[in-house]
Design a protein that fits this description.
Elements (H helix, E strand, L loop, with lengths): L10 E2 L2 E8 L2 E9 L7 E3 H7 L6 E5 L8 E12 L2 E10 L8 E3 L1 H7 L2 E2 L16
Parallel strand pairs: 1-9, 3-8, 4-7
Antiparallel strand pairs: 2-3, 2-6, 4-8, 5-6, 6-7
Length: about 130
């Protein structure tokens, strides 16, 4: 009898505490894990607090809530999730009115191999302040 194959990949909830590291230091934030987002996106204030920059590029993105393309700056960022470090190019936009000031996209999820479990909550996603 064969043993069933067990997936050893880490499972994360749809909201996870993430650390963004930049020249000004580390900033912890609750991030929305979004399998529908191609690229990780940070709020402009979050990027400024971590000291991210200079702008490396500009990309055009069709945000889910927008009807037209939006141009966003791209900066290098170091992101830590579950103790794993990722060096990425993150888009920066104004997310101050959004519940989560950071979206973790498929650029990190593909590299990490995380499994996203929508039923796995962490107790912080409802009514939590997204910035620490």
């Amino acid at each position: 009898m064969r043993e069933p194959k067990v997936d050893k990949r880490a499972t994360i909830p749809v909201v996870e505490e993430v650390t963004v590291v930049g020249p000004k230091g580390s900033v912890r934030v609750l991030a929305r894990i979004d399998t529908g987002a191609a690229r990780t996106t940070l709020d402009t204030d979050l990027a400024a607090r971590a000291g991210l920059g200079p702008v490396l590029d500009r990309v055009r993105i069709r945000a889910s809530a927008a009807s037209k393309l939006e141009v966003r700056d791209v900066v290098h960022a170091k992101v830590i999730i579950l103790g794993r470090e990722f060096d990425i190019s993150a888009a920066v936009t104004d997310r101050k009115d959004m519940r989560y000031h950071m979206i973790v996209g498929m650029d990190i999820l593909r590299e990490a191999g995380f499994l996203v479990d929508p039923s796995k909550g962490n107790g912080r996603e409802n009514g939590a302040d997204a910035s620490h």
